[in-house]
User: What shape does this take?
Amino acid sequence: MDERTDTSSPPTREPLIEFTGVKKRFGPKVIYEDATLSIYPGETITILGGSGTGKSVLIKMLIGLLRADAGSIKAFGHEVTTMNEAQLLSVRTRIAMLFQSGALFDSLTVEQNIKYPLREHAWGTDAQMKARVEEVLEMVGMPGSQKLKPAELSGGMRKRVGLARAIAIQPEVILYDEPTTGLDPVNVRRINGLILSLQAKLGVTSIVVTHDMDSCFTVTDRIAMLYDKRIAFVGTADETETCTIPYVREFIRGGRGVLSEDVT
Amino acid sequence: MEGFITLLRDAGAVAILTVRAFFAFFKAPIEITPVTYQLDHSGIRSWSITVLTALFTGMVLALQFATGLEPYGGSMYTGKLVSLGIVRELGPTLTALLVGGRVGSGFAAELGSMVVSEQVDAIRSLGADPIKKLVAPRVLACIIALPLLTILADGVGVFGGLLITMREVGVTAKFFFTQVKDTLGMVDLLHGLAKSVFFGYFIGILGCFIGLNTTGGTEGVGQSTTKAVVTTAITLLVSNYVLSTIFVAIYG
Assistant: This one.
């Protein structure tokens, strides 16, 4: 636990991922004016923000699914913004993403879905891939579901299979895009448990994008708050209490169900 | 003016997509299975609409020529006109329009749904190229399928013409086929088939392009589907005229 809180204090190690002065707009809508954030190896950081503030945009820019208009994004010491699709491949093998609704391929079975990245990266023989599929399905608590089609799965199960697919090629960083949105409380707890257990088992760095405060406080080491087109605040859960930006305090208190005196 | 600029920009984007799909397909490993799957799914399963369209087109063409030419004593030439009309124009064009409506809208809906459910992003994040996985096999399958369907349409259309010519004009099948043989040259057949290769390309690339550029959730998927049908049909009709002009100028 000491290890986890340690990441919040001014770090002594090199950041794994660095956003510096990132700008992004869609047509006339400005999403980021100047986003700066450093993420350190082994930590779990949650990016919080209201709906439509472009939380997912940040992590999609990290793996080149979206391009930043300006600024620098570094992953493992390499500049991502100037990479072409072929060069991005090396980043994408090390950073996996769990999409909001799982983004499983409808036409493929669970097994084929999980084998997809393994095949693309020529991960091993067919028998090895089969064993790997079994292993990751076990990890996400869905053993024996290899032959099912995505249409036969519930929302929570799809996310878990999506997670299994994401961790199949043993990434160093996992990006979670709204992992608990739209799930019932049982599934929310289950997904949060998975994020924690993967963290413990695989030692990965996790970036969680969410507006779900409960999840945030369950899984996170640090919180980054998105406000006014930039990262307005970064710190531990306790540090949010002393944050001077009223919106950040409001968001976090409101999310935790603490009634604010300022508002009432 | 703005519409014209959009048109030019889209045409450029389609050209870029074509080039990227071409290189993506030949980039190792060359994947044949998705092509055969699409060929079955989009090509072979279009045989029934092709047959129905061609049969009734051949029949109505024969009916109109047989009755229309009668006052001039020209009904004996029905076989010549029907076969020429089918093989050079209606076989390839109507097949393309029908298959374009069926397949192009299907591509747009399928790829559009994949875009809005982030499956296309997932393909990229898992280290694969959506153009290689989705666009290349679909376009290639259409380019292969359309000429084959056109040959089928040509045969069935001429057969439909035969049935009605025999009934309306009273010629024998032998007479009809002799006329067809005398009228049609290899050039006529190639004229139609060459066009159908282009039609296959347009159907495939436009369906994929419009699908991949879907925005705005499920509503966007619906709009893309409609857009694919309309855009493909217009492109086919305009390009048919242009291609025909070129081929006529070259081969007569």
User: Anything to note?
Assistant: The two ends of chain A are 36 Å apart (CA to CA).
